[in-house]
Amino acid sequence: MTRIFCIANQKGGVGKTTTTVNLAAGLAKVGQRVLMVDLDPQGNATMGSGIDKRSLSLSVYDVLLESASVAEARVKSEKCGFDVLGANRELAGAEVELVDVERRDQRLKTALAAVAADYDFVLIDCPPSLSMLTLNGLCSAHGVIVPMQCEYFALEGLTDLVNTIKQVHANLNKDLQIIGLLRVMFDPRITLQQQVSEQLKAHFGEKVFDTVIPRNVRLAEAPSYGLPGVVFDAGARGSQAYVDFAREMVARIGHG
Ligand code: ADP
Ligand code: MG
C-alpha cells in the first residue's frame, strides 16, 4: 500500500526541501518506489532532483487544476531513481485559481489515488506557509514529517503546525497524524541544541525520530549540482544520515 507523507513546517529554511529530496533518494536506494511531489512554487525540490523546472511541460499546477493526470505530468529522475511531480512559478497562481472550485482542498488527494499502485512512498514537499497548497498536501497524506532545527523558538513554532494538523485531522482527513519530528542541521557541539533536543524528546517522546541529521556542507552544496546530497556524495555524513532515516521510515511504516 502506498504511504503518503507531507514534509511540512510553516517556517522557511528549516530543511523541508533538503529532507524531501534526500529521503526520496534514500528510500529509492533501499529499494522503494518513490514519487516526490513538489508543492512549493519555488520549485527547489524539482531542481534538486535533477529536473529543470523551466522545462516542465506539465506540472503539479496542471494536476491541481485537473487539466492533467499525475501519470501525464510526472517525470522520471534517472539520476535520482525516483519520479517527480514538479513545480514552477506557475503554481503560485493556483492558490487564487482554486478559490472558487469545488473540493479545492481534495484535488491532490484525488489525483494521487490514480497512481497509488505505482509507489511505496509519496513524499510531498510543502511551501513555508499554511496555505491552500499545504492544505492539499495535508488532505492527501497519511502523515506529516516535521523537520526542525533545535533552536530556542523551535517548540513555540510547532504550536501552529500542530494545531493545523489537529484541525485537518478533525475536519478533513481522519488518517492524518504527525509521524515524527526530525532533528536537522544538528550540531552536537552546541549546548543549546543538545538541550532543545532533550526537551523535544521529553515532550514528544517516540514522535522524535531516532535518526539525527547533522549540519553538513555537502548537503548544502548538492542543490547547486541539481542533486540530493545522497546522490551527489553518498559518503558524506549528512547523506549517510538521510539513508539511515530512510531505513528508519521503512521500519516504522513496515515496508520492505
Ligand atoms: P526549506 O525547504 O524548509 O525552506 P531547505 O531544505 O531549502 O529548507 O534548507 C534551507 C537551507 O539550509 C538550504 O540552503 C539548505 O541547503 C541548507 N541545509 C538544509 N539542511 C542542511 C544540513 N543538514 N546541513 C547543512 N545545510 C543544510
Ligand atoms: Mg523548501
From TrEMBL:
Residues 3-178 form the AAA domain. SUPFAM superfamilies: P-loop containing nucleoside triphosphate hydrolases. InterPro entries: AAA_dom (IPR025669), DNA_Partitioning_ATPase (IPR050678), P-loop_NTPase (IPR027417). Pfam families: AAA_31 (PF13614). This is ParA family protein. It comes from Ramlibacter aquaticus.
